[in-house]
Design a protein that fits this description.
This protein is an alpha/beta fold. The chain is built from 15 helices and 13 strands. An 8-stranded mixed sheet has the order 3-2-1-4-7-6-8-5. A 5-stranded parallel sheet has the order 11-10-9-12-13, with helices on both faces.
Length: 410
Amino acid sequence: MGEPAVSVIIPTYNRRDELRQTLEALAAQEFPAAEFEVIVADDGSSDDSAEVAASFDGPLRLKYVWQEDLGYRGAAARNFGARQAAAPIFAFLDCGTLAGPGFVGGHLAAHSAPGRRAVLGYCYGYDGLREKKRVPNSFGTVSLSEVVRRNADDPLFQDTRHSEFARVGFDLMKFAVPWIYFTTMNCSMRAADFWAVGGFDEMFKSWGMEDTELGYRLCRNGVALTLSLDAWTIELPVDRAVMLHLGSLMRNVCMFHDKFREPFVELLADGLCHLELATTDADAAMLADWTEQARELDVAAEIESALRELPTGARVVVFGCGGSIPASLPPAALLDFDAALLAKATADGRHVGYHAIGLRTELAAKSADAVIVTSRLRGLWPRYRERITAEAQRVGRRVLGASAERMGEI
């Protein structure tokens, strides 16, 4: 048997019934079963998932691998499955996500276009934060294709990302931060691109963010994101422990931000922790636009004026430093959302730089005598005034230049 065209990797844990349905859908693919492989990566199940998987060895070109149950290790299970994969394209599918008949062919076709890409497949019924299951019309009594035909226009059956996809004409690269939509319940990428970024980060040991963080690293590595409507799936209706998921999600987004201290990840962490995830891309677009507008905005005079209010030797942090720093500024912590200007401001080695907005910083509480907030944050002030001010107050004993009145005057 020749090399498979696609390796479909399915992590699972004690979900034998969902696993059976997932494998049944893969056995009904239009793409020839002999030309793709399925790898079930078991994260330590104690039910008869192994027997369920074995029953499909024949109808599918199937491998089953098991790792010891050491707690939630979804990222590690996916990597474990990927290490067994022989195809040049990896497709990840969650257990309990049912592949439409064009799933494998749709992913493969998307990768036939020029360029490096990761592909998101559309997922009907997907809403990770829906608490109560909602069973679509005729689900379980007709084919998956017929379920989609009957329910495709129902907003509660559509992929929860549908309105955002539609906003950019289903072209993911028109998003300011496309990686925030990257989920591994239905996605694919070339094996070479997956391993080039190191696969999933196994530091994630609870639900959420390991997929978004992988999407971020893929985009940083020059991989474009593409949506496939042909490679659609349906998520099985299930009840969810939403509050448990939210707690895990918030912990994990903080881990993500600790790993990548940069403004767009800062926006994601802030948005999620304020339950405003839906606005993250719009906020990122606003930040990108303001970064361009503020490129020539020099705030050296503002910083120098604020310094006159401080005693000699004061410990200073500047939110929005820009590229020009007055010589009178003692060694300070400098923040700016523009990486190029921050590098210029810290080039002489006197100051410590942080590529950040000032919403969520790694600076210790009351670690500065004063935080100077400059007019470089003016474009973000209508949206983030309270949060930036609160962070400045947490970090510094005094905050200079951060009043709404003064910001409005600048």
